[in-house]
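Blinded run. Sample ID left blank on purpose so nobody reads anything into the name before looking at the predicted structure. Input follows.
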Amino acid sequence: MASSREGQSAENVSLEPETGNDADAEEIGNLIDNKMSALMELEDRRSLRKRAQHFLLTSKIGIGLEILNTLLSLLSCSLFIVQSYYEDAEHAELQNRLDLLDLVITFYFLVDYIMQVYVSESRIHYIFSGPSFIDLITIFPPMVILLPKIVGFGTSDGLAFLDLSFLRFIRVLKVLRILRLQRLLGNSDSEVQRQIFTVSLTVLSIIFCFAGLFHVLERTFVTPEQMLEVWEVDSLAFHDAIYFTVVTISTVGYGDFVPISVPSKFLVMVMIATTIIIISKQTNKLLTLMSLKSVYARNSYSTSSNTPHVLVVGHIDFTSLQTFLTEFFHEDHGQQETNIVIISPNLPTAGVEWLLRSPDYAFRTHYLQGSVMREKDLHRAASHKANALFVLGDKFSCDPHGQDATGILSAIAVLRFAADMGCQHLQPIIQLQRPDNKHNFTLSGFNASNSDSQILCIDEIKLGLLAKNCLCPGFSTMVSNLF
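Blinded prediction complete.
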């Protein structure tokens, strides 16, 4: 009996810890499930934000929103300019309507700012970034200015202290939002084009912002009598402020308009210093980018309806190009009015450059550095408008099969581009080394679609001359002496 009681008690003791362990394990499991659910929910939010960010950056709707933001910024600045010409009491109703429209635009900018903060990877970093600072100073101060006017706070004597019209100069800073257009060129292949676009936007922003600030300061701190005495006009129009800003930053300084008030004089000093620093820095970057590319890599061919052109690709060296140009412009072919556009991935050698500058060919040949595998370079050469395509081969190549494959691929790339652009009349003339490589171009399908295509095989011509010489001794000698 004692042993049985001891066994039962031992069993009870052993069961109690197991029950406690099960409860602890269940509690730990629930805690892990809750943590996992929270992590999954957080991951879903992050993935949603990333998808929204990717959508705004790459989709057509996102690009359309950027363009809409720019247009609204320009519209808001235009409203400020219009209001500067109708500030008298007779146009109070027009002023209120324009203020209401500007307030609606500002609310749209506020919604766009909140959306940009939401989709940003690091919200704190974005809030303290340059674009966010521009958004903040162009959204909240105008709202503080316009809301009291729209609701009528400024008309009450008790609330006259809310007249914040002295802050209206901040509205001109909305033009800085057009700098966001740089995002649209983020996928552009040309760094030079992006930098030119950036410099243009910067100059436009500087002119408009400082003109608006100068206009506000002079009309605030200078009386009409002082204006009449110095400028011989009793009021400063906005176009006069634009004129003064352009003349000042261009260092011309005609002197017909000069700053009168002390704040305007300080503004002019800041404007000149800002222009010198920012424009010089960006112009230097532009010149650096332009120096990295040769003039042949930047040039493009402009077509003319009266002047046809042909395309020359493949192996371009002094010997092959001189032979081609001599034959193409030979007097036996009559007066040749066709231009030649050469595409080569390499810069022209000294001999090739001498040929291009020769009086016989300078006005008819155009050399472009690029690749026929890039659509952009084919656009530069107007390949889809060419009448013929010449693919030159290297007769002294150590790898004739590789040389033939490169020429065939170049011809297929140009013909496919021309077909995509709706051109079906481009005649290919391809120079190959080995006869057994002709079928590679035939299998591409472009040979069948274009009955005028010609493939000149050097080895085939040599063997043909030898065969004819066997039937007619001296034939190859006669033919060789003809050329």
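Unblinding after everyone has recorded impressions. Confidence is low (pLDDT under 50) at residues 1-19, 153-166.
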